[in-house]
Amino acid sequence: MTAIAAPSRTGAGRSRTWLTIAAFLLPALLLYLVFVIAPIVQAAYYSLYKWNGLTPLTDFIGLKNYQVALSSDAFTTAVGNNLLIIVLSLALQIPFSLALAVMLNRRFRGRALFRLLFFLPYVLSEAITGIVFTLMLQPGSLVDGALGRIGLGGLVQDWLGDSSIVMLTLFVIISWKYFGFHMIIMLAGLQGIPRELEEAARIDGADRRQAFRYVTLPLLGPTIRVSVFLSIIGALQLFDMVWVMTAGGPVNASSTMAIAMFKAGFKNTQMGYGSALAVILFLFGLVVALAYQRFVLRRDVDGAMTTGAG
Amino acid sequence: MAATASADTGAGVRADRRPGVRFGRPTALGAAAYVVLAAVAAAILVPIVYAVLGGFKSNGELVSDPISIIPKVWVFSNYTDVLFGVNAATFWRQAFNSLVIAAIAVTVTVGFASLAAFVFARIAFRGREAVFTLFVFGLLFPSAVAILPLYILVRNLGLAGSPVGVALPQAAFALPLTIIILRPFFRSIPAELEDAARIDGCGPFGFFWRVLLPLSRPALATVSVLAIVTTWNAFLLPLILLNGADQWTLPLGAMNFSTEYASDHGKVLAYTVIAIIPAVVFYFFAERQIVGGLTAGAVKG
Amino acid sequence: MGSRRRIATLVATASIVFAACSGGTPATTAPSTAAAPSTTAASVAPPSAGAKPVTVEWWHITTGEPGKSDFQAIADAYTAAHPNVKINITVLENEAFKTKLATSIQSGQIPDLFHSWGGGIMAAQADAGALKDITADIASWKDTINAGALSIYAYKGVQYGVPWDMGMIGVWYNKKLFSQAGISGPPATWDDFLADVGKLKAAGITPLAIAGKDKWPSMHLWTYLVLRLGGGNALAQMVQTGNWNTDACTKAGAQVQALNNLQPYQPGYAGADYNTEAAAVGNGKAAMEVMGQWAPSVEKDQSANKTGLGDDLGWFPFPTVAGGAGAPTDGVGGGNGIAVGKNASPEAIDFLKFFMSVDNQNKLNSDNVGLSTVNGTEATVKDPNLKAVLAGRGAATFMQLYLDQATSPAMGSAINDATIALFLGKSDPAKVCQAITDAAATQ
Prior knowledge:
Number of helices of chain C: 18
CATH architecture of the largest domain in chain B: Orthogonal Bundle
Number of domains of chain C: 2
Mean pLDDT of chain B: 82
Distance between the termini of chain C: 58 Å
CATH class of the largest domain in chain B: Mainly Alpha
Structural class of chain B: mainly alpha
Order of helices and strands of chain B: HHHHHHHHHHHHH
Number of domains of chain B: 2
Mean pLDDT of chain C: 84
Oligomer: heterotrimer
Number of helices of chain B: 13
Number of strands of chain B: 0
CATH topology of the largest domain in chain B: MetI-like fold
Strand order of the largest sheet of chain C: 2-1-3-12-6
Shape of chain C: globular
Largest sheet of chain B: none
Radius of gyration of chain B: 25 Å
Strand content of chain B: under 5%
CATH superfamily of the largest domain in chain C: Periplasmic binding protein-like II
Structural class of chain C: alpha/beta
CATH topology of the largest domain in chain C: D-Maltodextrin-Binding Protein, domain 2
CATH class of the largest domain in chain C: Alpha Beta
Low-confidence stretches of chain B: 1-17, 19-26
CATH superfamily of the largest domain in chain B: MetI-like
Shape of chain B: globular
């Protein structure tokens, strides 16, 4: 059903329409401008100062905060960690979610139960998930004990204390939490693909794998791209779970951009520097959004996210 | 690449000779697939079961025998301390805070977003798509970016430490997704209804309030549920705006509890289990809405 | 009905926007979280019952008992003697206190008396104009307080607060585990210390507990090494000038590496927080920790049976280092104090004097709330370990405030990060000293 054109014939009617539009739209728009848009602009402004959030804003230092950030080991490690999670998510988590979605797309006994269960971690708070896993991963706790019991005791590591594997440990837990979410999205996408298409390919002689690869997968493209996009944005924002589990440690080995920003602003009272980190984080998000917009949305048949037609 | 040949095999019956798939009747999956699914299910359940049962164990037992499932000695004090005893006041206070913030945030979100979505869906005006894009923009970058200035802003407004100070920004950040989900629903209400309402003397708001919203109950339920889940589990924003155990929400309280009782694993597990019960219960009731809303928002735009 | 709601919404949102547009300047729309600044009474002496009513806002962080009740009792006693004075106490947890104070200072509503650790944060507050110069106000009774401790609450020659608790970091050890390992007595020198670590390892006992996640416990150990090697003046110079590329710093780093090589730390130390470290000691799993005067109570609290080590717990001062320029009596320490807000009334300062009186301080001592800085209260400290700490403090010729308090929060963070990297084997002495110097340069 297309939008209804409301402007009426008389002048009074037209201004009443604008009043209507304003009245309906302004609450959301104002709230959004004040609490979402304005802070981002302010972040850019604060980032040009050296400021502890306490005294008046007087110490203008231009782009110095950015220089420090880009040459800081701690920050580059954080950026690297965000990128690592993105790469791992795209390479491992998304295909895994897809595979599960394909499996759950068939009707079989117990399917609803599996679906219910797999999605459950999504509604748990990241912080609480982090706490439980931290306890499980303590030396000598559940994970170590289980490995020992099945004879794989040699694999025991300092899961959260060893800088070389802490990010991998975190990735596994992040996947635990979110694979169900991506699976549900893929499932919805799969269910939107008419079964006749794959059947037709099968009748034409394709085996199951080929049918999937050449028929289903391309049609699933938009869905996968949405998943990829959400995954990247989520990976860039990583904070809650990491903060609870390692606070970015040991020694920044598991730091993320959001953690670096939080520490700078709230632990080191370096509001200016923290704001610069926020702007850098924003730029990452912007690049991803623009890339998504240009390379993905234009291609997709739906492309419904930003266009209003249809 | 869309094949259009039909799969009719004569006799009007659609049948598929592939093993394991038939229409209308649940069948068995391949054994390998079942194993995988079971393994994944186990991976999900293990931490939860560990937490639930761990809360009933003494610390000594958790340390000496971490993988035993059933506690040798059932310790109830961990759970009772949190629910009724020493830590109860803190816990219930934090649960209350979470509830208040969620209530305010969800009301504001759904209220403001449905008003805006109505305009986006049903009234054309110059610049409409630009404004809509502005909202979508909010979905496209990490919300953590705004945290530092948001803290200063809320502090300057005098709202630091108050539920409203947390609820308003959370509502603001929830607007984009809510509007995106509501817009297509609102669009699908037929124009005839609007015409009829106008003839009856209803202005746009009357139509909105008396016709559109009641008809959109499923969509409103969906976005409400999504907003509740997001707000309830929010961590970073409450962390910077709320101070002290009596202001915190449950996730913050849980984290503080876990550091305060760092060596009392049983107690920490009990606290976290109780803290997630609302979310889990809510999930089992509202799963359909959550899933439906996400897929609508994500897939169909 | 509809239009009224619309207008209400518009007005509400508009007011938010207007408030928001004031940007970084303090808003006047804020409902005050502290009471209004107390009115000044005419007289300086304790006012009689007919005098104007005065309210004193006091924020502290002693959440545990019996300290919390003791503080309340002191306030009540003062109010009983001065009926026109009302003392509003706000008790907050550590982090909550820091944030709330920052908020209040920014909005200009500063409490009259509030908790302070002295050092860099207090200096920043003074620079922001939040504190009252009490040099003259306390001139008549300042000699009752330990001079070294008092100096930590002064900045650029001006007194801004008073300390009520000051201790010294030392080494807390498990006597039973020591004798199990065949160690007869606590080590006096660093070489003896390392040898003892070896003996404990040989006996299958974890020698030392540190906290990789919280970072500051090991930072104190490193600070002591620098102090022992370079001496008090050199360390003060390093803090002052920000140049840490000194001999003492690199040598201290080398000693940390020597310690690391013995692998003395508890399992999971890299991710442990302080409470976990305390639990390790309190449960008898680790033989030593380098910690301040609160160690016994935290160890007890975090131990499995809430009993701690009891009589098995001992204390010795940090060992001397051969060839070091520092005196064996030098110490790293800190404690708690009260700073005075710029709007505080004479009554608030009078209450402060009452708080610091010998009788009240004796009570705090005997309740183990702190180690009082008031001269003449030493006798009321009963615990033998705390008596030893007190003796160490009394003998100290030089006292360095914890480095993450003495400097700014950002510097403290940098020092913590640099030193923990060293303890985790991720850095080397020269890099650590350079990193701290670099951080100081950006201050």
